[in-house]
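[recover] target loaded
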């Protein structure tokens, strides 16, 4: 196994440790529950409010690189029908299953035109070689935790803060699935 692959796995492990120690307690304190993982790429959380289910997903790079992105959405308390006659109750709803507006939390400021062009949607472990994998992962996870209030504002009022962008990917995928399987009610 190459050093590059081993170091990427080490950074991913450091990132998971940092998330467990820094982010998960904050999410739990804010009322989020972690859902049973469906795969090793996404960690899904949701929170039941008085009139909706608020969903947050931590999605890791599928190629094993030490990076993650944050996706947020909301769905109805009663849940949503899915394809092939499956119904997902509200307490099991995940970000990818929600319909309508979704957002991506980015590590960079998205308010300037230049920033929107060059903004990357991934939280990456930069400078890991210089500061070590644990410090790089901790710095990245702490940045995510510091931006959770922008997600809270979005759930309450759909206001996009400096680090949130609209996720149009789900609308494209939804239209493709509707063409294949028919429109869902």
């Amino acid at each position: 196994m190459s050093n590059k692959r081993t170091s990427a796995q080490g950074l991913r492990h450091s990132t998971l440790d940092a998330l467990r120690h820094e982010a998960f307690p904050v999410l739990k304190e804010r009322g989020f529950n972690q859902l049973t993982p469906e795969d090793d790429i996404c960690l899904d959380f949701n929170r039941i409010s008085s009139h909706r289910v608020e969903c947050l997903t931590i999605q890791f790079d599928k190629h094993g690189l030490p990076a993650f992105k944050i996706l947020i959405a909301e769905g109805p308390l009663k849940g949503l029908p899915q394809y092939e006659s499956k119904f997902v109750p509200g307490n099991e709803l995940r970000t990818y299953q929600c319909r309508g507006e979704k957002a991506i939390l980015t590590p960079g400021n998205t308010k300037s035109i230049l920033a929107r062009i060059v903004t990357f949607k991934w939280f990456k472990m930069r400078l890991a070689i210089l500061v070590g994998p644990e410090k790089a992962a901790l710095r990245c996870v702490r940045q995510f935790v510091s931006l959770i209030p922008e997600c809270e504002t979005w759930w309450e009022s759909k206001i996009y803060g400096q680090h949130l962008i609209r996720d149009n990917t789900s609308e494209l995928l939804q239209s493709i699935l509707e063409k294949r399987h028919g429109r869902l009610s």
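[recover] notes: The chain has one domain: 3-179.
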